[in-house]
Amino acid sequence: METFKNKIAESLAKKTNIDFNILSEVIEVPTNEEFGDFSFPCFQLSKILKIAPTIVAKSIAEDLEIKGIEKIEAIGPYINFFIDKKNLANVVIKNILKKGDKYGSSLVGIGKTVVIDFSSVNIAKPFHIGHLKSTAIGNSLYKIYSFLGYQCVGVNHVGDWGTQFGKLIVAFKKWGDDKKKYSVKDLVSLYVKFHKEAEKDEGLNEEARGVFKKLEANEIEYVSLWRMFRELSLKEFKRVYKLLNIKFDSWNGESFYNDKVGDVVAMLEEKKMLEKSRGAYIVDLEKFNMPPCIVKRSDGASLYATRDLAAIFYRKKEYNFYKTLYVVGNAQQLHFKQIFKVVELMGFGWADDLIHVDFGTVSLQEGAMSTRKGIVVYLEDVLNESIIKVNEILKNKGLTSTEQNSLAKKIGIGAVIFSALFVGRQSDSTFLWEKVLNFEGDSSPYAQYTYVRIRSLIKKVNKNINNNINYSLLCHENELSLLKLLSEFPNVITEAASRYEPSVVARYVIELAKYFNKFYHNCPVINLENEDLQNARVSLCVATSIVIKSGLNLLGVDCPEKM
Ligand code: ARG
User: Fold this and answer.
1) Which domain holds residue 23?
2) Is the CB–ligand 1 distance for residue 133 below 6 Å?
3) Does ligand 1 have an atom closer than 6 angstroms to the CB of 230?
4) Which of 163, 233, 530, 540 shows the greatest Cβ crowding within 10 Å of its Cβ?
């Protein structure tokens, strides 16, 4: 991709024979413009070459020429690069207008498949606010990787198997009502009741284990109850995905692997990796400072880990993936480390292509949730509340009620998604309505609003931007910094993909909106006598609107045209 950073890294690579990616990571954007638009510190190179950094800087900078870079100078251990500002607008805007919503996309991923295991909700359990991050991050990575040419497979690895179904069936048979139409909330209440009762009556847990065993053995009555729980849950969950506008390519959940775990156990046995421990079968991981990975319980039942192992081999065969991303909270770090290690020990080099994209928690002001205690905040409720709040804000703005409703949905849903993406994925965050729906803050409504404002000002000026634009007129400080930022969009996407970090895109979009608003504040567009300058500014507006919309789309946030 032709960005300034890439061009610099390329020419440095040519000159030093060092890998492009290594060099590219070292290039910085100096905080002080005096030191150029990009800067390359030579400390690392100096270590590799065993030459003083100042000398390295000097000898590399000497007769280095890069298209679009006007000045290259060695200052101490740094090489500073100055973009040719007269040509900046010409290069950047033309490129964006030519590529349109494809600007920033690439073909690096062509022929490679990325499996993205995300959202992965649990049957008969709440689809709660804790699932927001996995759902939003996974969906955004799906879009980002697709934008880079990869074939993506979005998998909802539904939690539809395990001992909890024994508990639920016991509860249903004891306290349930055959004639009633059940919702997930009802099932959750049954589950909560089971735990309360089991505190008093030890025997209940025993009973549940027995029932689960019979379920695994396909006992027809239990299978049909299980199926009923599964269907009603999925029906409700799909309502939430519809609100979020998220689709999956596969719904193969844990139960799908029930008949495939045997092969995994057999493979492990053949490789002499299984050990018997207190009746259970385990893979010992002590050498790697991890507790053992249990693959078969003493009663013969499979476990979460076994089903995940089966899923890995199934997916390798089915998709021959280049990478599989598991977008799952950091509470499961150990689980993934264990199963990836097992695959590695089995001798499969591609174990390195399994990646746990972990993330921190989202908490609420009200405090922690607990399914067992029945303290739960449903994601669907949060989304609907957001729509209601936005509807309230949009009242009396002269919109028809259909317009207002559809707008409230785009803004309300987008804001909740965006809030999960703005913070770096590994940090914990708190969900605060004042932040999520702050139209002037680091929120998607702010970006959407900026986009709509740009579109409407373009309409007001009503200019047909043609080919004869004098781009060199765009030389105001705010124009130049906006242009520079626009030129970085392709790098931003690559970085987000390589770090599995949609927040890079989210932060960029906000920064872009801020830069635009600064430009618009200081550089008039509508009331402008100089028509040539107006033309050039309108084209800058168009380019900015394209990139804001693209950025929001990659986050899974819809962009309205009117607001
Ligand atoms: N259902 C699991 C949970 O809610 C997440 C599943 C993640 N994916 C996986 N392949 N283990 O904790």
Assistant:
1) 4-83
2) no
3) no
4) 540
What are the pLDDT digits (tens) for 59-72?
999 888 998 899 99
Ligand 1 pocket mutation, candidates 328, 342, 376, criterion most atoms within 8 A of CB: 328
5, 131, 410, 549: the active-site residue: 131
Residue 69 lies in a domain: yes
Number of structural domains the chain divides into: 2
125 has catalytic annotation:
yes
| Cβ of residue 303 lying under 6 Å from some atom of ligand 1 | no
Last residue of a domain, one of 83, 111, 146: 83
Q: What is the pLDDT of residues 279-322, one digit of tens each?
A: 999 999 999 999 999 999 888 888 999 999 999 999 999 999 99
Question: What CATH number is attached to the domain comprising 25?
Answer: 3.30.1360.70
pLDDT digits (tens, 9 = 90+) for 251-275: 999 999 999 999 999 999 999 999 9
Ligand 1 center–CA 327 separation, angstroms: 9
**pLDDT, position 117:** 98
CA 544, chain centre distance (Å):
23
Summarised one tens digit per residue, pLDDT across range 24-49 is 889 998 988 889 999 999 998 888 88
Helices (H) and strands (E) in the chain, counts: 21, 12
Domain termination site, one of 83, 109, 131: 83
In angstroms, the CA 137 to CA 427 distance is 13
In a domain, 89, yes or no: no
Element (H, E) at 312: helix 304-319
* Closest alpha carbon to 37 in 79, 87, 82, 88: 82
How does DSSP classify residue 12?
Answer: H
Distance 159 CA to ligand 1 centre (A): 6
Rounded Cα distance, 151 and 154, in Å: 10
Instruction: For residue range 514-552, list pLDDT tens digits in order.
Output: 999 999 999 999 989 999 999 999 999 999 999 999 999
Give percent of the chain with pLDDT exceeding 90: 80
pLDDT, tens digit, for every residue of 434-488?
Answer: 999 998 999 999 999 999 999 999 999 987 776 789 999 999 999 999 999 999 9
Does 131 qualify as catalytic in the annotation?
yes
Find out whether the beta carbon of 409 lies less than 6 Å from any atom of ligand 1. Answer: no
CATH number at residue 410: 1.10.730.10
Structure-token match 């770096």, residue found: 424
d(CA 464, CA 451): 19
| 337 annotated active-site | no
Q: Identify whether 487 is part of a domain.
A: yes
In a domain, residue 245? The reply is no
Tell me how far the alpha carbon of residue 508 is from its chain's centroid.
Answer: 14
Question: CA 291, CA 286: separation in Å to the nearest integer?
Answer: 6
